[in-house]
Design brief:
Blueprint lengths: L5 H20 L13 H15 L3 H13 L31 H14 L6 H15 L19 H7 L7 H10 L4 H8 L6 E3 L22 H11 L6 E3 L11 H7 L6 H8 L5 H10 L1 H16 L40
Antiparallel strand pairs: 1-2
Length: 345
Amino acid sequence: MASASPNAAVASFFFLALLFRASFAQLSETYYDQTCPRLPNIVRASVKKAIQSDIRAGAKLIRLHFHDCFVNGCDGSVLLEDAPGIVSELNSPGNQGIQGLEIVDAIKADVEKECPGIVSCADILAQASKDSVDVQGGPSWRVLYGRRDSRIANKTGADSGLASPFETLDELKAKFAAVGLDTTDLVALSGAHTFGRSRCVFFSHRFANFNGTGSPDPSLDANYRRFLEGVCAAGANTRANFDPVTPDVFDKNYYTNLQVGKGLLQSDQELFSTPGADTIAIVNSFAAREGTFFKEFRKSMINMGNIKPLTGWRGEIRRNCRRVNSNSGLFGGEGEGEGEGHGVM
C-alpha cells in the first residue's frame, strides 16, 4: 500500500494535536479519581473544621472563589501575594478587606499530606466553596476539576473587573456579561450574600446624601437604616450581617430581604429596586421557593467555575497557594519555569 503523503501526515499530526489539546480543555468530575480520590472528603473535613472555629469561614472562601474567577478566570491568581514580578490582586480596591488566605493554606496543607503536588489551589477554591455552602444549609453539586494555577496576577483586571457594592444594576450586568454570565447568574450568585458580613464602609453611604440627593437611599427600609446606623456608630470597619434574620445559614432569605428593602449593599438592593428591571421577577421567584434558588445557584456556580480555566500544560500546580513555584516545569514538576501558557511537551 502506498505511504501517506507529506500533506496527509502533517494534517494527521495537527488533528492529533488538536485532540490532545481538547482532552485538556474540559473540566471533569473524575479528574482526580486516580491521583487524589479522597480529595472531596479531605477538603470538606477541613472546611467544616474552619467553620467550627470561625463562622465566617465559608463566606470568606466563596468570596475568594468569586474574586478569583472574575479576573483572568478561575486560576488561583487572587491568592498570589506581592513578589518580584507580581503585583497582587489583593491590592485592588475590589479586594479590600478580603480574608481567608490562612484557611486556604490549611486546606492546601491537608490535601498535600495525602496528594502532594497533585491538586491546584484553583480547584481547592472550587471544592471549598461548594462545601462552604452545603455545610451551612445550602445546595450541593458535583464539582468539576482540572484547573491549574496561574503564574501571574492581574491587579489591573481586578481593579476594573470586580463588582463593586456601589454599582448600579447596569454596571453589575456589564461585569457579569464580560465573563460570560447572564442576568440569572447575577441574581443567583448574589444570593451568596445570604451569609457572611460586610464592613460599614461599603454601605454607610446609603444613610444620608445618597448620590448627592441630600437624603438617605430611598430603597433602604427606614427602620433597617436606623438599626444599621447604630451598628456603624462603632466605626467604618464594624461588620454587619448580610442577612439580619439567619446570618449564618445559606437559605433564600437574601431575596425576601430584598423584597422589604433590607438588602445590605446598594448592589444587593439594585436587583429588586431598579424600576422595570428584569431581575425583579427572578428575585421574586427565588424568594417564593428556596428550591428554585438552590437549583439556579448550583448551575451558576458551575458556570462561574468554568470561566477560562488554565488546563493541560498551562500554568502549574502551586506548592504554596500564595507563591508561584520557584521551579516550574511541565505539570508543576521540577525544572526551569516557563512563561504563562508556554510549557514544553
